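Sample intake sheet
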Amino acid sequence: MPRKKKINELIQTDGKKETFVATTLQQILGDKGISKYGHLDVNRYSQQLKGYNLAELRNHAIKIGIVPSMNRDRIERQLLIEFKKYVNMYQKPETNITPVKDIAVDKLEAARKVMSGAK
């Protein structure tokens, strides 16, 4: 009997096609954001960090702009946070939100109609 998957191993999908919009002039001109890290994949970056020894990890943190400590886990966590911020800057989701009509405005208009008819 196959073992059940843990919740953190499951991937939630919603069936939506994810499209991203350009947010900066560089993106409009064709910059894909891969120049700083070489890619925009969080899992690949996490594996890359795990492959570094402590000295390489500290040098990478300095290159990215983080003051490194001697704690490897803390450096990796900070680098992943910075990487995710960078990725999110280049992958802003496209929003197709239609404005919702304000209910209070509808009530106000209905009250005006009633009051204008009372004259």
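Comment: The mean pLDDT is 80. The longest helix spans residues 72-90.
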